[in-house]
Amino acid sequence: ETGVTQSPTHLIKTRGQQVTLRCSSQSGHNTVSWYQQALGQGPQFIFQYYREEENGRGNFPPRFSGLQFPNYSSELNVNALELDDSALYLCASSSQGVWYGYTFGSGTRLTVV
Amino acid sequence: ILNVEQSPQSLHVQEGDSTNFTCSFPSSNFYALHWYRWETAKSPEALFVMTLNGDEKKKGRISATLNTKEGYSYLYIKGSQPEDSATYLCAPMEGATNKLIFGTGTLLAVQP
Description:
The complex is a heterodimer of chains A (113) and B (112).
Chain A: E1 5-7, E2 10-13, E3 19-24, E4 31-37, E5 44-50, E6 53-57, E7 64-68, E8 74-78, E9 87-94, E10 103-104, E11 108-112
Parallel strand pairs in A: 2-11
Antiparallel strand pairs in A: 1-3, 3-8, 4-5, 4-9, 5-6, 7-8, 9-10, 9-11
Chain B: E1 5-7, E2 10-14, E3 19-24, E4 30-38, E5 45-50, E6 56-59, E7 62-67, E8 72-77, E9 86-94, E10 106-111
Parallel strand pairs in B: 2-10
Antiparallel strand pairs in B: 1-3, 3-8, 4-5, 4-9, 6-7, 7-8, 9-10
């Protein structure tokens, strides 16, 4: 097992730009979720993918979009970056059963200036 | 929409002290309750997943209980050690979407 790997670890972008964050799921996991953690808050659910289809979405605007690939790796894309998008973005993978917890990556720290 | 509250926000204890935290959540639309430990500069690590009212789980010196009828869970750490220093997050899971609704966490600092 290699765990969940996220890249890059840190990123600085300018307001209005677009960004792509990447996540490699743990081997054997077919579900991936993305969370945003702003300063002083708990992680907030963005969306979840199961077998390449989005199957749940949190209260985030459409400029937050994602993909899951056949090997179950995933991307989070954010268009038209705003200052409030500055946060830690966490990726978590799981098998579809809910009994074992999610395996999280260590996150991508995005700063929008 | 679930509103998850964790208390206390932070806790400083001496090595060997026992401690407990509380996670409160609305009991409707409940499916499962996750606990995670998150050490600085690392990934959140799953501790427990609990689903049934009255569930009790244990992992070494750490244990947790769940009351789904009144909407709370307790996490206990017996004989705290410096390596227990971390943020402890609880996250009820919504049944329809399997999404986790995280609290803001309890920051535990254990002094040697």
